[in-house]
């Protein structure tokens, strides 16, 4: 790097304290040549800056050394005093190096005069020292804050014992339609009575379920760990003496093959590009899961749903049914942006012997009970073949015949249905690599996503991130200015949102376009680059990135991104109510300090001692919301806090004042607008739900594949009930 043109040439950088760690007001880099400082950061590394600021401000010796170096650097005439011009130049250089907005002369002059205690028009070292300390504190507070609370999505998934609270599930959920049943139990479409939000409820009868409860518990644990636009979300679980109830996303679009059939009946056969977009989403979900060391083990068309019912292959898919999924030991690979690879962290010892799945989609090594995450790539390859041809590559009348075909037979490319692969060399190349029988030679999900076959799919979504819609830009900038506490609560609300509304689809597309490595998370670099392309200033980008990362794990999850981009409307008051109910664990109409901690951190009360000195900090947070000073957060206080200084937050409903002792009950109309009526508080709200309905058996659809007329798909493996 070259000098930025300061007449002083190469100067000793302030804030020194270790190679590669300093902040600099100097004009040329010195760290590279062995100096103890750091060159001007291009681009800024927020973590390095934050670490150095914390060190300098916490250690008196480091601060004194930094202040003296800065003072000496700009005391050019050696008079041991800095005039206004010198201070202005110093601060301008610091702002430039850290990509901070410039300070206007009027504001800077007021600050200068404030610390010019002798009123002689210059700052002696002791005067400058005080100004410098306050300046660094202000930079840290505004641009590199230490989060008062970190939250994660796992803490938002609450588990409630109905027996202990002596309430029935029908006082919480209205059962509207039975969607299917299987060896585990039943699946119903339900509506949350208190919020009007539509969910899918999986009911597991402990006595009758053919699936061990340990397996169900593992499914819940896995789903709580996953936060990806193409993976089903879990919201809450309930238990009573008889059943377990798991609330999940409702995917209106139904199963993958049925969507193809629906499009076919409307005269629209899927193209190769349509298949590429579906496979890209599927492999992105696998890339993310494998980076979390989660293997699905039962990937098949029945477990791939479309989120919405619009008749288009361009819709968003969701991977479901983690009942057979397995979490491998080891550390997840967080923040894989750019150069990340889900193969990193996997080695030859990371093998499973717990074979499971549907035989027609199982990899050869699964039959041998010695496999790893690459078994999901094989299953995805079988799905790819099915989508392109309308038939399965490896079949048989018995499981043994299927095993032999998968293990020994070549991929059938000489059939009439597979003729398309002779004309599509990229598709053929990808297919053969995914169905490589030696899993050690099989590509990872990341390697599949880099294949030339997906070039057209990438081009179809390219450029989405160049310009953010004004509403989303406004929401992000508002989110940037909010407190860490408010952002944590907004994340809790975002977890409850309906994924099928237009705003969610728009945000998901933007997230996907920013996720250049298709890992399912945004690295800080990916987000920063996308925001820069959208025209945001560098100093705002630093604040936005820090604000979005509410769990402070150096990457941005899907829910974190949605929370920052969402434009809240009054009709979404039911979502706010749902978030409040999630925190009100005992249902008494207010949130205690213990409940507040548990809701945001996921810590049980018995574990909250681990917070140690932070407990007082949490009490201060509660006090910030608790305006009547009773040590608890009530509904009106919760709403008012989220409305305060936030133009995009939900508004209070315009209703007559409540009678004493009454609370507002939220329901949703058919059109999605919240209605509010004062009723005596009951939590959850008691209501009589209709008996669960029954679904008529559906006819098997015809499907039109990319290269042929309508055909019926071949054997679909073990039957799985539809999920929506």
TrEMBL record:
InterPro entries: CDPK_Ser/Thr_kinases, EF-hand-dom_pair, EF_Hand_1_Ca_BS, EF_hand_dom, Kinase-like_dom_sf, Prot_kinase_dom, Protein_kinase_ATP_BS, Ser/Thr_kinase_AS. ATP binds at residue 202. PANTHER family: SERINE/THREONINE-PROTEIN KINASE (PTHR24349). Coiled coil: none annotated. Residues 1-15, 647-665, 678-698 have a biased composition (Low complexity). This is non-specific serine/threonine protein kinase. GO terms for molecular function: ATP binding; calcium ion binding; protein serine/threonine kinase activity. SUPFAM superfamilies: EF-hand, Protein kinase-like (PK-like). Keywords: ATP-binding, Calcium, Kinase, Metal-binding, Nucleotide-binding, Repeat, Serine/threonine-protein kinase, Transferase. It comes from Chromera velia CCMP2878.
């Amino acid at each position: 790097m070259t000098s930025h043109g300061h007449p002083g040439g190469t100067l000793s950088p302030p804030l020194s304290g270790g190679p590669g760690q300093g902040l600099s007001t100097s004009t040329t880099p010195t760290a590279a040549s062995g100096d103890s400082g750091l060159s001007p950061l291009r681009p800024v590394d927020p973590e390095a800056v934050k670490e150095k600021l914390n060190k300098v401000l916490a250690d008196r010796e480091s601060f004194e050394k930094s202040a003296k170096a800065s003072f000496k650097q700009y005391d050019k005439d050696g008079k041991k005093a800095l005039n206004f011009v010198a201070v202005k130049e110093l601060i301008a250089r610091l702002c430039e190096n850290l990509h901070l907005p410039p300070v206007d002369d009027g504001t800077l002059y007021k600050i200068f005069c404030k610390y010019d205690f002798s009123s002689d028009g210059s700052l002696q070292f002791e005067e400058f020292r005080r100004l410098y300390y306050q300046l660094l504190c202000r930079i840290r507070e505004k641009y590199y804050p230490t989060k008062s609370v970190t939250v994660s999505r796992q803490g938002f998934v609450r588990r409630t014992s109905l027996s202990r609270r002596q309430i029935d599930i029908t006082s919480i959920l209205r059962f509207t339609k039975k969607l299917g049943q299987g060896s585990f139990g039943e699946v119903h479409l339900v509506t949350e009575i208190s919020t009007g939000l539509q969910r899918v409820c999986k009911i597991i009868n402990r006595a009758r379920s053919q699936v061990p409860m340990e397996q169900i518990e593992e499914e819940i644990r896995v789903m709580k760990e996953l936060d990806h636009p193409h993976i089903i979300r879990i919201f809450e679980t309930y238990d009573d003496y008889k059943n377990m109830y798991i609330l999940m996303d409702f995917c209106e679009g139904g199963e993958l093959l049925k969507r193809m059939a629906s499009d076919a009946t409307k005269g629209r056969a899927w193209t190769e590009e349509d298949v590429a977009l579906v496979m890209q989403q599927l492999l992105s979900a696998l890339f993310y899961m494998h980076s979390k060391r989660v293997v699905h083990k039962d990937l098949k068309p029945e477990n791939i749903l479309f989120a919405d019912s619009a008749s288009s292959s361009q819709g968003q898919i969701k991977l479901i049914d983690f009942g057979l999924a397995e979490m491998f030991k080891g550390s997840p690979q967080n923040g894989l942006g750019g150069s990340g690879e889900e193969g990193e962290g996997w080695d030859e010892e990371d093998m499973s012997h717990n074979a499971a799945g549907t035989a027609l989609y199982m990899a050869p090594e699964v039959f041998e009970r010695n496999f790893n995450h690459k078994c999901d790539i094989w299953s995805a390859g079988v799905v790819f073949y099915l989508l392109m041809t309308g038939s399965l590559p490896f079949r048989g009348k018995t499981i043994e015949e299927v095993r032999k075909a998968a293990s020994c037979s070549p991929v059938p490319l000489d059939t009439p249905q597979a003729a398309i692969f002779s004309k599509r060399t990229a598709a053929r190349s990808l297919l053969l690599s995914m169905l490589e029988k030696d899993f050690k030679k099989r590509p990872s999900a990341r390697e599949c996503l880099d294949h030339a076959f997906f070039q057209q799919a990438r081009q179809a979504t390219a450029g989405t991130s160049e310009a953010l819609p004004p509403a989303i830009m406004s929401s992000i900038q508002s989110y940037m200015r909010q407190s860490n506490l408010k952002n944590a609560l907004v994340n809790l609300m975002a977890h409850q949102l309906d994924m099928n509304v237009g705003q969610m689809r728009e945000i998901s597309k933007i997230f996907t376009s920013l996720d250049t490595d298709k890992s399912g998370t945004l690295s800080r670099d990916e987000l920063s680059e996308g925001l820069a392309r959208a025209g945001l200033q560098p100093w705002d980008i630093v604040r936005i990135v820090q604000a979005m990362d509410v769990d402070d794990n150096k990457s941005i999850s899907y829910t974190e991104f949605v929370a920052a981009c969402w434009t809240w409307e009054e009709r979404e008051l039911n979502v706010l109510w749902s978030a409040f109910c999630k925190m009100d664990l005992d249902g008494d109409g207010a949130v205690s300090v213990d409940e507040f901690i548990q809701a945001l951190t996921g810590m049980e009360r018995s574990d909250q001692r681990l917070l140690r000195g932070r407990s007082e900090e949490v009490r201060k947070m509660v006090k910030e919301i608790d305006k009547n000073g009773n040590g608890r957060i009530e509904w009106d206080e919760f709403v008012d806090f989220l409305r305060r200084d936030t133009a995009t937050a939900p508004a209070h409903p315009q209703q007559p004042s409540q009678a004493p002792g009454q609370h507002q009950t939220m329901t949703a109309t058919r059109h999605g607008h919240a209605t509010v009526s004062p009723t005596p508080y009951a939590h959850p709200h008691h209501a009589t739900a209709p008996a669960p309905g029954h679904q008529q058996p559906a006819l098997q659809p015809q499907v039109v594949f990319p290269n042929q007329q309508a055909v019926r798909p071949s054997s679909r493996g073990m039957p799985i009930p539809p999920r929506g």
